[in-house]
Specification:
Blueprint: H1 11-23, H2 26-59, H3 64-112, H4 116-166, H5 168-216, H6 218-223, H7 227-279, H8 285-307, H9 309-328, E1 347-354, E2 363-370, E3 375-379, H10 386-393, E4 401-406, E5 409-410, H11 419-422, E6 423-426, E7 435-436, H12 437-441, H13 450-459, H14 463-467, E8 476-477, H15 486-500, E9 504-508, H16 516-529, E10 534-538, E11 550-555, E12 558-563, H17 565-570, H18 574-583
Parallel strand pairs: 3-10, 3-11, 6-9, 9-10
Antiparallel strand pairs: 1-2, 1-4, 4-5, 7-8, 11-12
Helix pairs in contact: 1-9, 2-3, 2-4, 2-8, 3-4, 3-9, 4-5, 4-8, 4-9, 5-7, 5-8, 5-9, 7-8, 13-15, 15-16
Bound molecules: adenosine-5'-triphosphate.
């Protein structure tokens, strides 16, 4: 896996995963196979019946009764074949859709469960490509190609058997001629096309990432006059995508002529050998007709299979990328039902080290005990590692070394579904979902009562404006709703936390979007509501420092001072210097 991409499953892992999914749908697979075999038998009967009719016409002096029987059999074979194909395609598509639905939700769950640092490293483009682009490619293949492929492969095997049963000599002649002419082209394609398709999918993901990045950073690009350079970067990605698409088209263009010439060669060989055997009286006209008919019919599913190979290659590349993410990530298991006993909110950090990249450590050997119910301020210069420590405290990332315990729980062992009740993070960026105010507030505690939701809204000072909306707390809002200012979005976020009521709360610049007066009021209200909870605040301002129970100062990823405000100011250490410069 490169720095910027998520893992891709190898062929063995891809097929193992697919096999497991199909094993769970045994009866659907059996039905599709049975239908395909039925279609094959009906299809294989046609050349045999036509061959028999020719022999009857030539040797049986036009036995009308016999010919009528054969015509009836032909009609039955045609009806069975048509009905079987129709039902088979439908059942195969149904099976494909159910596999697709499982993959789609699997990749979504896996992406949601990815560690935050991985999400940041690979970027939005790669995630969007995996969850939508790759799924789309697979969905198209599942709808159009997979049913054809399934029936086509069984049909080609059945017709080949039929050809050999009709006449081994003609079968060998036809297949050898087809193989000799078409195989070099097919082999070349099979060897060169898969990496080209995989590359195409990858560069398309990178191009999406570049476009998204330029869009998200458009104001910065404009301010720095760098819009032109960003467009040129996107153009370069666009050119790479075009080159990749041309490379796959070139591969297809080498395959198709090989197949067409192979078709012609196989028929010519059957007719040539057949004519020779016929002349010697070692073959009947009916057998030659049946064999030529088999070859003609066989060419259809074979060319369909090979013609679809490009879609299969694309689908296989997409499937490998989807399964790569699913197998790489341990998606959150469903809740076991019994809620986690959160216990005390005491935090014990023991020898914690961490780096976003293995070669660039950010935190070094951090050890700290925070008593339950205390209010701790993490302070330090910009880039010191405060937010990084906060991310580890709420299990957004895992420590590289050491461990973090909250109460009696080691954070590394807490199931993702249980984590929010133990520790929650209120960050600067908030999101208002397109749901009612009530549902937004009860996001992580869906069975909260109306009174609990109202109490949370009252505490953060949002009850008045929420009640003033057309449907009160049942009004559907979203981030673009005119009533939802950034300050109100943050209030809803804080109300969410109060409703969740976690044992430990991490506040990272949580009130920075509020104006100073609202920020101070909200902070006071939240503090009152959270009395008794352990609160770790990442402080960029030191206004609240004198009231905190514990100050922890971090610099260059190490704890350089710990104590009460009063105690630290009295001993002339790093915090005293920071406080002095802040006070000035
Ligand atoms: P600030 O007060 O400016 O937010 P901070 O003390 O919270 O700073 P961190 O944000 O934890 O510091 O950053 C610590 C170091 O880790 C910095 O060198 C920063 O560049 C780096 N860093 C932070 N977030 C990431 C990330 N997602 N990926 C890679 N490096 C990161």
């Amino acid at each position: 896996m490169s720095e910027k991409t998520l893992p891709v499953a190898d062929t063995t892992a891809t097929f193992r995963h697919l096999r497991t999914m199909l094993r769970r749908r045994r009866s659907a697979v059996a039905l599709v196979v049975a239908l395909a075999v039925g279609v094959t038998i009906a299809s294989a009967a046609v050349p045999l019946i036509v061959g028999a009719a020719v022999d009857l016409a030539v040797d049986g002096d036009g036995d009308r009764n016999g010919l009528a029987w054969l015509a009836g059999l032909l009609a039955i074979a045609a009806v069975v074949g048509a009905l079987g194909t129709m039902t088979g395609r439908y059942q195969a598509a149904k099976l494909g859709e159910s596999v697709l639905a499982e993959l789609r939700s699997g990749v979504y769950d896996a992406v949601v469960a990815l560690p935050a640092s991985t999400v940041e490293r690979v970027g939005t483009g790669e995630l969007v490509a995996r969850t939508t682009g790759d799924v789309e490619v697979l969905a198209n293949a599942t709808r159009s190609t997979v049913p054809m492929l399934f029936i086509g492969s069984i049909l080609s095997v059945g017709l080949t058997i039929g050809l050999f049963v009709t006449d081994v000599r003609l079968a060998v002649a036809g297949i050898v001629a087809f193989g000799a002419v078409a195989w070099p082209g097919v082999r070349w394609y099979l060897r060169h096309a898969p990496p080209r398709y995989a590359h195409q999918r990858q560069v398309e993901g990178e191009r999406s990432g570049a476009i998204l990045e330029a869009y998200n950073g458009r104001h910065t690009l404009w301010s720095f006059g760098a819009t032109g350079e960003a467009i040129r970067r996107i153009d370069r990605h666009g050119q790479t995508t075009v080159d990749a698409a041309l490379a796959t088209t070139a591969a297809r263009n080498r395959l198709r002529p090989a197949l067409r010439i192979g078709q012609g060669a196989s028929l010519a060989a059957i007719l040539a050998v057949g004519a020779w055997l016929l002349g010697d009286g070692r073959l009947t006209a009916g057998t030659l007709t049946a064999a030529a008919f088999f070859m003609l019919r066989l060419i259809d599913p074979i060319s369909m299979l090979v013609e679809q190979l490009d879609t299969v290659q694309q689908a296989q590349a997409a499937l490998a990328r989807i399964i790569g993410v699913i197998e790489h990530t341990d998606a959150a298991p469903p809740s076991t039902g019994a809620p986690l006993a959160t216990g005390s909110g005491a935090i014990s950090i023991d020898g914690v080290g961490f780096g976003y990249r293995p070669d660039v450590p950010v935190l070094h050997d951090i050890s700290l005990d925070i008593p339950a119910g205390s209010h701790v301020l993490l302070v330090g210069p910009s880039g010191a590692g405060k937010s990084t420590l906060a991310r580890l405290l709420c299990a957004m990332d895992q420590p590289g070394t050491g461990s973090i315990r909250i109460g009696e729980h080691d954070l590394a062992d807490v199931e993702p579904v249980d984590r929010p009740r133990l520790v929650a993070l209120v960050a600067q960026e908030t999101h208002v979902f397109a749901r009612s105010i009530r549902e937004n507030v009860a996001l992580a505690h869906t069975d909260a009562t109306t009174e609990e939701v109202r109490a949370a809204l009252r505490t953060v000072g949002a009850a008045d404006w929420a009640d003033g909306l057309p449907a009160g707390i049942d009004t559907i809002v979203d981030a673009d709703h005119p009533a939802i200012t950034p300050a109100r979005a943050q209030q809803l976020n804080l109300a969410r936390i109060l409703c969740l009521d976690p044992a430990v709360l991490i506040l990272d610049e949580a009130t920075a979007d509020l104006d100073p007066i609202t920020a101070a009021t909200t902070e006071r209200r939240v503090e009152v509501a959270l009395r008794g909870r352990t609160v770790v605040t990442i402080a960029h301002r030191l206004d609240g420092a004198p009231d905190a129970d514990l100050i922890v100062m971090i610099d260059e990823g190490r704890i350089v001072d710990v104590g009460t405000h009063r105690g630290l100011v009295a001993t002339a250490g790093p915090y005293a210097d920071l406080w002095a410069s802040w006070s000035r």
